[in-house]
Specification:
Structural class: mainly alpha
Number of strands: 0
Distance between the termini: 41 Å
Order of helices and strands: HH
Radius of gyration: 31 Å
Helix content: over 70%
Number of helices: 2
Amino acid sequence: MLNIDYTLIIQIVNFLFLLFILNIILYRPIRKILSQRREEMLSFEGMISEFEEKSNESGKALEKNEVGARKEGLKEKEALKGAGSEQEKAMIKDATSQASEKVDQARDEITRSLVSAHQSLEKELAFFSKELAEKILGRNI
Protein backbone atom coordinates (compact mmCIF):
# COMPACT_ATOMS: atom_id res chain seq x y z
CA MET A 1 0.00 0.00 0.00
CA LEU A 2 1.16 3.53 -0.77
CA ASN A 3 2.11 5.59 2.23
CA ILE A 4 2.03 9.33 1.79
CA ASP A 5 4.81 10.84 3.86
CA TYR A 6 7.81 13.12 3.42
CA THR A 7 9.62 10.67 1.05
CA LEU A 8 6.95 11.19 -1.59
CA ILE A 9 7.65 14.92 -1.54
CA ILE A 10 11.40 14.22 -1.74
CA GLN A 11 10.82 11.94 -4.76
CA ILE A 12 8.71 14.59 -6.49
CA VAL A 13 11.34 17.27 -5.82
CA ASN A 14 14.05 14.87 -7.03
CA PHE A 15 12.11 14.18 -10.24
CA LEU A 16 11.54 17.88 -10.94
CA PHE A 17 15.20 18.66 -10.26
CA LEU A 18 16.30 15.89 -12.63
CA LEU A 19 13.90 17.17 -15.28
CA PHE A 20 15.31 20.69 -14.87
CA ILE A 21 18.92 19.50 -15.14
CA LEU A 22 18.18 17.35 -18.20
CA ASN A 23 16.49 20.29 -19.86
CA ILE A 24 19.55 22.49 -19.34
CA ILE A 25 22.19 19.91 -20.20
CA LEU A 26 20.51 17.82 -22.89
CA TYR A 27 17.30 19.12 -24.39
CA ARG A 28 18.14 22.80 -24.95
CA PRO A 29 21.39 22.15 -26.88
CA ILE A 30 19.68 19.58 -29.08
CA ARG A 31 16.76 21.91 -29.79
CA LYS A 32 19.22 24.72 -30.52
CA ILE A 33 21.12 22.58 -33.01
CA LEU A 34 17.90 21.47 -34.69
CA SER A 35 16.68 25.05 -35.02
CA GLN A 36 20.04 26.16 -36.43
CA ARG A 37 19.92 23.34 -38.95
CA ARG A 38 16.36 24.27 -39.89
CA GLU A 39 17.39 27.91 -40.39
CA GLU A 40 20.39 26.88 -42.48
CA MET A 41 18.27 24.62 -44.66
CA LEU A 42 15.74 27.45 -45.15
CA SER A 43 18.54 29.79 -46.16
CA PHE A 44 19.84 27.20 -48.63
CA GLU A 45 16.35 26.80 -50.06
CA GLY A 46 16.18 30.58 -50.43
CA MET A 47 19.52 30.61 -52.19
CA ILE A 48 18.37 27.83 -54.50
CA SER A 49 15.23 29.75 -55.43
CA GLU A 50 17.30 32.89 -56.04
CA PHE A 51 19.66 31.00 -58.34
CA GLU A 52 16.70 29.45 -60.16
CA GLU A 53 15.18 32.91 -60.65
CA LYS A 54 18.49 34.22 -61.94
CA SER A 55 18.79 31.31 -64.35
CA ASN A 56 15.21 31.89 -65.55
CA GLU A 57 15.97 35.59 -66.06
CA SER A 58 19.12 34.67 -67.95
CA GLY A 59 17.10 32.26 -70.07
CA LYS A 60 14.54 34.94 -70.88
CA ALA A 61 17.29 37.40 -71.69
CA LEU A 62 18.89 34.74 -73.84
CA GLU A 63 15.61 34.23 -75.69
CA LYS A 64 15.30 37.98 -76.21
CA ASN A 65 18.89 38.15 -77.41
CA GLU A 66 18.27 35.20 -79.68
CA VAL A 67 15.21 36.84 -81.26
CA GLY A 68 17.10 40.11 -81.78
CA ALA A 69 20.09 38.33 -83.19
CA ARG A 70 17.91 36.40 -85.63
CA LYS A 71 16.26 39.59 -86.91
CA GLU A 72 19.60 41.29 -87.25
CA GLY A 73 21.02 38.24 -88.95
CA LEU A 74 18.20 38.18 -91.48
CA LYS A 75 18.77 41.84 -92.33
CA GLU A 76 22.48 41.33 -92.76
CA LYS A 77 21.87 38.13 -94.68
CA GLU A 78 19.81 40.08 -97.17
CA ALA A 79 22.40 42.86 -97.31
CA LEU A 80 25.58 40.79 -97.24
CA LYS A 81 24.25 37.44 -98.58
CA GLY A 82 25.85 35.02 -96.18
CA ALA A 83 28.29 37.02 -94.07
CA GLY A 84 25.53 37.93 -91.64
CA SER A 85 24.49 34.32 -90.98
CA GLU A 86 27.98 33.36 -89.82
CA GLN A 87 28.11 36.32 -87.44
CA GLU A 88 24.65 35.44 -86.05
CA LYS A 89 25.66 31.86 -85.31
CA ALA A 90 28.77 33.03 -83.47
CA MET A 91 26.77 35.47 -81.32
CA ILE A 92 24.14 32.87 -80.41
CA LYS A 93 26.79 30.28 -79.61
CA ASP A 94 28.68 32.70 -77.34
CA ALA A 95 25.52 33.83 -75.54
CA THR A 96 24.37 30.23 -75.03
CA SER A 97 27.74 29.05 -73.78
CA GLN A 98 28.04 31.99 -71.37
CA ALA A 99 24.56 31.39 -69.99
CA SER A 100 25.12 27.67 -69.62
CA GLU A 101 28.46 28.31 -67.88
CA LYS A 102 26.75 30.68 -65.41
CA VAL A 103 23.98 28.17 -64.73
CA ASP A 104 26.52 25.36 -64.28
CA GLN A 105 28.59 27.49 -61.92
CA ALA A 106 25.50 28.36 -59.86
CA ARG A 107 24.47 24.70 -59.67
CA ASP A 108 27.99 23.65 -58.66
CA GLU A 109 28.10 26.31 -55.96
CA ILE A 110 24.73 25.23 -54.58
CA THR A 111 25.80 21.59 -54.61
CA ARG A 112 29.07 22.37 -52.82
CA SER A 113 27.35 24.42 -50.15
CA LEU A 114 24.70 21.74 -49.59
CA VAL A 115 27.34 19.01 -49.31
CA SER A 116 29.44 21.02 -46.87
CA ALA A 117 26.38 21.85 -44.77
CA HIS A 118 25.34 18.22 -44.76
CA GLN A 119 28.83 17.09 -43.75
CA SER A 120 29.09 19.62 -40.94
CA LEU A 121 25.68 18.65 -39.63
CA GLU A 122 26.59 14.97 -39.71
CA LYS A 123 29.81 15.68 -37.79
CA GLU A 124 27.85 17.57 -35.15
CA LEU A 125 25.23 14.84 -34.99
CA ALA A 126 27.85 12.16 -34.37
CA PHE A 127 29.45 14.22 -31.63
CA PHE A 128 26.17 14.91 -29.86
CA SER A 129 25.04 11.31 -30.26
CA LYS A 130 28.21 10.12 -28.59
CA GLU A 131 27.87 12.72 -25.85
CA LEU A 132 24.23 11.77 -25.27
CA ALA A 133 25.10 8.08 -25.10
CA GLU A 134 27.85 8.80 -22.58
CA LYS A 135 25.49 10.84 -20.42
CA ILE A 136 22.77 8.23 -20.55
CA LEU A 137 25.12 5.33 -19.84
CA GLY A 138 27.19 7.28 -17.33
CA ARG A 139 30.50 6.15 -18.77
CA ASN A 140 32.83 6.94 -21.68
CA ILE A 141 32.29 5.17 -24.97
